[in-house]
Design a protein that fits this description.
heterodimer, A: 328 residues, mainly alpha, ABC transporter involved in vitamin B12 uptake, BtuC, two-stranded antiparallel ribbon, 2 strands, 1% strand, disordered N terminus, disordered C terminus, B: 355 residues, 16 helices, 69% helix, globular
């Protein structure tokens, strides 16, 4: 049922231990990157890479947040509205002045943590069903975002937007470096006791409880982590777009769920990881831009994108269900 | 028969509230059998109904117009659309296996758009329009079912992905600009007065409520749905053809969403690209508020119908409070979410791990 035993003893062991994305995810990544290289002019130039990584980063960050929540056996349907709310708070506080940046970023991060705390309390302490509880809280967060910034606007210091699109040493785009940092942050979470506890709780709550895992605290913290990553995604979106919008991140909720499934994380919790989820985010964003570059007629674009995503999910689901792994 | 059903459900979460009350004992819910509130929390249908009436009474105190007969009828009419769309959602969730249908809103929109284009404002095309719309809806449901059974995609993700496909299909079909208009007969059927000013849609909803209750409680199909919700493997070993049932359940869900979209079309009389998209998550909220467990096998449609009324009363209650007069939707949204959380925390809670 779990890993093939022949592989787990051999030299491939560390590779499997690092929770590589599933075969299907890897195939999808290769296919989308190859197709992009063919269809998208200058895909491998510094400019092309920068703009692609710039678009991927926010999606990837939200997805990592969602992965932590899902691994712990929950789901966060409000994560997109948390992105919006913290980005709106940040953009209003910074008001285009670079010297107010630390204050604004701190406040935005606090908002993310606070929203995650609200979700975590509702799910872990009050014991509401995650789907409906976070759906309800998404109304609160979206409403607050609309109160703070009723219409699109606000200004991000050009220092941030220009810095975000810098290319280091003519080859490495800044967003790519940040993506690497994101993965390292995930590895840090995984290395900590909390990471293992999340897998334990998502895999089998009762068994985790019996093994003295602080289940309530772990679930609560998983939502706080989700909210924190959502706030970071908000910053990335702001740096990419340059201004605020009261609906900026709302659609990311559904994108994050699709990306993590493509990346091989099991929706019922306990199996999967952020490495695959990041790849899933890359695949999703590339599919969207591919449909644009393939000169699909405007009216058919949405249908084609939707159909490709379904096929990708089905492909990933088919192979994940077979090779269902346990924890890290 | 009752015995068989009862074994498949947790005590207290059942729709047959009077039965449990009569037996007393284990049906008392978390709060213990002795206290009034405790007993009420064991019966979500009663609780949701009581909450709806209480909310309505408070609203009537603040704004006397709320209690007027036409206003009550209007409230129920608006509830009917959510109620009908949530029929399929209830069946899907009851059937278990992490069952959920996020595509109901998009499917309802699709049905309305197809119907309006085929009808072109003429009664002669009424039957054709309804047929085309429901077939289109059924196709979406069938694809959902195939993805879930044969490709083992989790229902949440499959139906989520289908939203994009359906919206894309709508865009391709309409070119971004919905055409046609509703047949007068459909408008008459939905909004036309019958006795005492009761609009036709309420009779339709009443008929559907009775029909669905019968379907779930008195037919083999219904028993199989509950059996699947209680445990897929057990159901399979007991001779339920699980795959075929899953296909049927998701197709049925889309068809009911299509019916809801048609009723909505008769009510609004015009279509736009996002007509019913907003019904997606409220339909799930109505099911949960009505006492159906998301794990499946526990609950029923009566609770969902009451839940739909409760959510609608809550929405219009916030409307009459007229918060945020500047035309902003924000405070209304915030309170809606907060109240929903409060309502859920009264009885939508899971069990303690220790127990």
């Amino acid at each position: 049922m779990t890993r093939p035993s022949a592989l787990s003893a051999g030299p491939l062991r560390p590779l499997l231990g690092a929770r590589m994305p599933t075969v299907a995810t890897a195939v999808l990544l290769v296919a989308t990157v190859a197709a992009s290289a063919v269809l998208q002019d200058g895909f491998f130039t510094p400019y092309g890479l920068t703009s692609n990584f710039a678009a991927v980063l926010p999606v990837a960050i939200v997805t990592v947040g969602q992965v932590i929540v899902v691994l712990g056996g929950g789901i966060d349907l409000s994560i997109g509205t948390i992105v919006t709310l913290s980005s709106v708070v940040t953009v209003q506080l910074v008001a285009g002045q670079p010297d107010r940046l630390p204050l604004a970023l701190g406040a935005g991060l606090l908002v993310g943590v606070g929203c995650g705390l609200v979700n975590g309390l509702a799910v872990a302490v009050v014991r509401l069903q995650p789907i409906v509880a976070t759906f309800a809280s998404s109304f609160v967060f979206a409403g607050l975002a609309l109160l703070i910034l009723p219409t699109p606007g606000g200004e991000v210091p050009s220092l941030v937007t220009l810095g975000y699109r810098q290319v280091i040493a003519r080859a490495i785009p800044v967003p790519a470096v940040l993506l690497l940092l994101l993965w390292l942050a995930w590895r840090a979470v995984l290395a900590h006791r909390f990471g293992r506890h999340v897998y334990a709780v998502g895999g089998n709550e009762g068994a985790a409880y019996a093994s003295a895992v602080p289940v309530t605290a772990v679930r609560l913290l998983s939502y706080v982590a989700g909210g924190t990553f959502a706030a970071l995604a908000g910053f990335a979106l702001l740096a990419n777009s340059g201004s605020g919008d009261p609906f900026l991140g709302n659609s990311l909720t559904l994108t994050s769920i699709a990306a993590l499934v493509i990346g091989g994380t099991r929706l019922s919790g306990g199996a999967g990881g952020a490495g695959g989820a990041i790849v899933g985010a890359v695949v999703l964003v590339l599919i969207q831009s591919l449909v644009f570059f393939a000169r699909v007629p405007t009216t058919a674009r949405e249908l084609v994108t939707g159909a490709i995503i379904i096929v990708a999910i089905a492909l990933a689901g088919l192979l994940t269900a077979r090779g269902r792994g346990a924890g890290p | 028969m009752t015995e068989r059903l009862d074994t498949g459900r947790r005590a207290g979460g059942a729709e047959s509230a009077p039965d449990t009350a009569g037996r007393g004992g284990p049906g008392g819910g978390r709060g213990g059998p002795g206290r009034g509130l405790g007993r009420l929390t064991g019966h979500p249908v009663l609780l949701a109904g009581a909450l709806a009436v209480a909310l309505w009474a408070v609203a009537a105190l603040i704004s006397p117009g709320f209690a007027s007969y036409p206003q009550v009828l209007n409230l129920l009419t608006v509830s009917a659309f959510l109620g009908v769309i949530a029929i399929g959602q209830t069946i899907v969730i009851l059937s278990g296996g992490e069952g959920i249908d996020l595509s109901v809103g998009a499917v309802a929109t699709l049905a309305a758009i197809v119907a309006s284009r085929v009808m072109e404002g003429s009664n002669a095309n009424l039957v054709q329009g309804i047929l085309f719309a429901l077939v289109a809806a059924a196709c979406v449901g069938l694809v959902n079912g195939v993805g879930i059974t044969f490709f083992r995609v989790p229902p949440l993700v499959m139906t989520l992905g289908m939203i994009g496909v359906v919206q894309g299909a709508i865009r391709l079909y309409t070119g971004g600009q919905p055409k046609g208009s509703v047949a007068p007969a459909l408008r008459e059927l939905v909004a036309g007065n019958t006795v005492l000013g009761i609009p036709g849609v309420l009779w339709l909803w009443l008929g559907l409520i009775l029909g669905v209750l019968w379907l779930l409680r008195r037919t083999t199909f219904g028993w199989r749905v509950y059996a699947m919700g209680a445990g897929r493997r057990t159901a399979y070993l007991s001779g339920v053809r699980v795959r075929r049932m899953v296909l049927g359940v998701y197709t049925l869900s889309s068809v009911f969403a299509g019916v809801g979209g048609l009723l909505l079309l008769g009510y609004t009389q015009s279509v736009f690209l996002r007509l019913a998209d907003g019904y997606m998550l409220p339909s799930i909220a109505a099911v949960v508020v009505g006492g159906t467990a998301l794990v499946g096998g526990v609950g029923g449609y009566l609770g969902t119908a009451v839940g739909a009324v409760l959510l609608t009363v809550l929405g219009s209650f916030l409307d009459i409070l007229q918060i945020g007069e500047s035309g902003s939707d924000a405070p209304r949204q915030i309170i809606y979410g907060a109240v929903l959380l409060a309502v859920l925390s009264v009885y939508g809670r899971g069990r303690r791990l220790r127990s």
